[in-house]
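Researcher: Here's a chain I'd like modeled. Treat it as a single chain, no partners, no ligands.
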Amino acid sequence: MLPSFWEQLLSQAAADTAAAMLMEARGLLLRGWSKGAQARDGRGHIVNAWNDDATAWSLVGALLASWHRHDDKLDEDFVAHSAEARALSEATKVLARTSGTLALDSWNDAPERTRSDVIAAVDRALSLLHPDQAEAV
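Model: Modeled as a single isolated chain. Structure tokens:
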């Protein structure tokens, strides 16, 4: 059975929103990268990923911060909230493919891991979501 028009539309919207979240997460990671915590402030203390004082993020922390910003803009609109949750799920799945694991926190925190490795995983994830725009990353 083929997906309905609305299912296809929702799927494309989730992929587009997932790409937007990944782009925002990439920008956060370029500002600062964290190991051992999803986010840290300027003094190195652990904070929530979406905290305004955060200056460094892990891969998952940057994705959560991006999702929180997107989700926080929504009203009590259940459909919009569901689309954002679906986009977060899509971004997480594609990052699992590019990192080779579902354990993204452990992957980020591995002793040999570098910020360049993390950025490269995000770039590969973006190219999987939108192969036609891979050159822009």
